[in-house]
Amino acid sequence: MTMMNDLSQAEIDALLSGAGGGDSSDDSGAPAPAVSGEMEGILSDIEKDALGEIGNISMGSAATTLSTLLGHKVNITTPSVTVAPMNVIQQHYPLPYLVVEVAYTVGIDGNNVFAIQASDAAVIADLMMGGDGTNPDTELNEIHMSAVGEAMNQMMGAVATSLSTMFSKKIDISPPKVNLVDFGKEDVVSEVINSNEPMVRAAFRMEVDGLIDSEIMQILSVKVAKEMVEALMGGGAEESAPAPQQTPAPPPTPAPAAPAPAPAPAAQPTSQPAPQQNYPQQNYPQQNYPPPQNYPPPGYGYGGQQMQPNVVTNMPVSPAQFTPLSTEPVQINEANIGLILDVPLQITVELGRTKKTIKEILDLSTGSIVELDKLAGEPVEIQVNGHFLAKGEVVVIDENFGVRITEIATPAERAAHLN
Questions:
Q1: Cα separations in angstroms, 402 against 315, 370, 374, 392
Q2: Do 106 and 241 meet the contact criterion of CB atoms below 8 Å apart?
Q3: What is the mean predicted confidence (pLDDT) over 164-176?
Q4: DSSP state of 175
């Protein structure tokens, strides 16, 4: 208690906010809910929840892709979303990070930055290069950076596909740029991030099959974050708003066009009444087309005479004749059958059958007798590839069982067994 009384309020706040360590996860495995110096009022709670849902779905696809690449189970939890300047985030995480910068080329205007701890990136690189991830190199060289870059490229491709599905539009990204940045020593994290500008940070907890249990960060500008939320929640509503503004515009265009032809017919009857009266009778109806009442009814010509059907009387007609069917047996081409004479077939001799309930089956034990549906001495069935072919009797040849064919089944009997 004496030591706690010696701490200042600022030191207590720093301990509560987790400023002393790079891992902001608590014992329950969830990321810390806030960063010391978080800016309030920039994003509403609904917008934060929407960004968390976007990150949860998209990073779920990324986790599946990374699991396939590494050959280990990958789990990425739902993120916590906060808003803070980049320099404040760096103070909260003064560790070396592998920064992956991705630019959206289609669908979204902006950039997306992911930060992975250098120690976690070393494990991913070791797994990508065929290692077991238990003893990775502490220093990341160009080969390791290239391996991690390929993994992040595959992950971001899965994220873009998920965003395209969620937003119902095409989302495409550029190949990622990978850099190693020490947040505690370097001021510039990425060329697309301003240290003093508010940035949206989504913190995910990533677990890789006992090899990694750490935190990764997604850093977005407020503009890109709000654009994602708008595409998920309010894109359809705002696109429908301009529709009422454009609908009044077309009516004024046809409105002046409608009155324009109206004065023309009005001027013709006043200035030229005679052509209006004589035009339908002299020029168009009588000279070019017959009057409607002169059209003949169906079955009559234009002259009023009834049309006669075209009947041909001189065409010879004879009854149809068919070639009689031959009753002789069809000759079989033995040469064709010879092609399949060496095909092996399975011959089975069925002694008999019976039906039992599950209870009766479970009661069977060593020494039990199963009674079949055939009488003693009754011919057994011979089947070829499961189809009934003949009947016979069981014989003993030396010390082996055999069957003597006594009757070949007729086609009718074989068809009855098929049914």
A1: 74, 22, 18, 10
A2: no
A3: 86
A4: P
- Per-residue model confidence (pLDDT) at position 30: 43
Q: Confidence class of residue 335 from pLDDT cuts 50, 70 and 90?
A: low
Question: Chain-wide mean pLDDT for the chain?
Answer: 74
Q: Report the pLDDT value the prediction gives residue 5, as an integer from 0 to 100.
A: 43
Q: In which residue are the tokens 């020494």 written? A: 367
d(CA 172, CA 213) in angstroms, rounded, equals 30
What span, in angstroms and rounded, lies between the C-alpha atoms of 157 and 147?
16
Alpha-carbon distance of 138 to 256, in angstroms, equals 79
Q: In DSSP terms, which residues pair with 350 in a beta bridge?
A: 381
Residue 64's nearest CA partner among 6, 141, 151, 139 is: 151
Residue 287: other Cβ atoms inside 10 A: 8
CA distance 352 to 376: 10
For residues 210 and 222, the answer to whether their CB atoms sit within 8 Å is no
Ramachandran bin of 133, using left for φ above 0, alpha for ψ from -120 to 50, beta for the remaining angles: left
- Number of neighbours of residue 107 by Cβ within 10 angstroms: 16
Helix axes 222-229, 45-70, angle to 10 degrees: 90
Of 113-117, 128-132, 271-275, the one with minimum mean pLDDT is: 271-275
Break the chain into its structural domains and give their ranges.
7-235, 344-362+372-418
Question: Is the alpha carbon torsion for 124, 130, 133, 135 positive or negative?
Answer: negative
CA distance 207 to 162: 21
Query: d(Cα 131, Cα 144) in Å, to the nearest integer?
Result: 12
pTM assigned to the model: 0.47
Decide yes or no: CATH 2.30.330.10 for domain 344-362+372-418. yes
CATH number belonging to the domain at 7-235, selected among 3.40.1550.10, 3.40.50.2000, 3.30.70.100, 3.90.1150.10? 3.40.1550.10
CA 330-331-334 angle, to 5 degrees, is 140
- Using CA atoms, how far apart are residues 21 and 325, in angstroms rounded to an integer? 98
Strands 80-85 and 177-182: unpaired
Q: In whole angstroms, what is the distance from residue 203 CA to residue 76 CA?
A: 10
What is the strand order of the sheet 387-397 is part of? 347-350, 380-384, 387-397, 400-408
